[in-house]
Design goal:
Elements (H helix, E strand, L loop, with lengths): L8 E2 L7 H13 L4 E6 L8 E6 L4 E5 L2 E5 L22 E3 L4 E3 L4 H16 L4 E6 L8 E5 L6 E4 L2 E4 L4
Parallel strand pairs: 1-5
Antiparallel strand pairs: 2-3, 2-8, 3-4, 4-5, 6-7, 8-9, 9-10, 10-11
Helix pairs in contact: 1-2
Amino acid sequence: MSADDEPIDVVLTAGDLDPHVVAARELLHRVSAIEVQAVVDRGTDRSPALITCGRMRPIEVVDDGRTVHLPHTAELDAQPPSLPAVPPLPPIEVDVAASTVSAPLGAIPALAEAVEALAASLGARSVALGFFQTTDDENPLGIAARVGEPVVLTLGEEQFGLPTA
């Protein structure tokens, strides 16, 4: 049996990662993301943990080589961080071939601010990544943030810095 064939345990807690699971789930709902990922720094002696939270599916946590699923609605003993809310947006207009993105005024910076707030709540060298609906279902807009570093936008295989005003 390969590692890909091993069964995934369903659990009701991710232990010390519960606050980060709650934070990722909170961002997903506050900004209407398709998916939120949190790469949580576990220090120099451990690999980072990966939390993946998507719409209407279990939350996946990979930590120390073990993968577990939590029910999306699991009640965890942690309070969500204060994150900015972004009103529901229409799909972001994209043209992958031309590498263009078009959204309502202020939408992309507001989404980036929310992803940055999640990154700050994760702490240390952790990374937050949110994926957002676009007019091209195959290519969601990704927004990645880490404290002290510029925000990175992804579209397909392309990466861009967030333009400054």
